[in-house]
Amino acid sequence: MSTVPSQTHHEVADSVSLAVVRAVASKTETDPAALPPLYDWIDPDALDALFAPSRTNDRREGTIEFTYDGSLVTISFDDNRTITVGETTQ
User: Fold this and answer.
1) For residue 88, is pLDDT > 90?
2) How many CB atoms lie within 10 A of CB 25?
3) DSSP secondary-structure letter at 40?
4) What are phi and psi for residue 85, nearest 5 degrees?
5) Phi, psi of 38 (to 5 degrees)
6) How far apart are CA 10 and CA 21, in angstroms?
7) Is residue 85 within 8 Å of 23, Cβ to Cβ?
8) pLDDT digit string (tens) for 12-50?
């Protein structure tokens, strides 16, 4: 599998799950409401919790990658959150 990346930055104030839907909708030129529910691919609450601020306000960082409605989504979080949406090919 390879990807054709299209990097999209979103406001950190958005929940990660909402930002993913918006990023995929933007990349695929689809209305976000027309996309299937994100929970068919990944648990949105768990995704939001993964990137939520820690109780001690320690810096959170990491990367997660998954497929959502035919798009490869990569989320990187350090000082900023970056969501990259690429097309999956076989």
Assistant:
1) no
2) 18
3) G
4) -115, 125
5) -60, -35
6) 11
7) yes
8) 557 899 999 999 999 999 999 999 999 999 999 999 888
What separation in angstroms does the CA of 17 have from each of 1, 48, 64, 71, 75? 24, 6, 12, 14, 10
Contact in structure between 73 and 83 (CB atoms under 8 Å): yes
- End-to-end C-alpha distance for the chain, whole angstroms: 5
| Cα separation, 88 vs 71, whole angstroms | 6
Question: Helices in the chain by DSSP H: which ranges?
Answer: 16-28, 44-50
Looking at every residue in the chain, the average pLDDT score rounds to: 82
- pTM for this model (two decimals): 0.79
Q: Which tops the pLDDT comparison, 90 or 22? A: 22
pLDDT at 34: 96
On whether the CB atoms of residues 49 and 5 are closer than 8 A, the answer is no
Q: In one letter, which amino acid is 82?
A: T
22 touches 35 (CB < 8 A): no
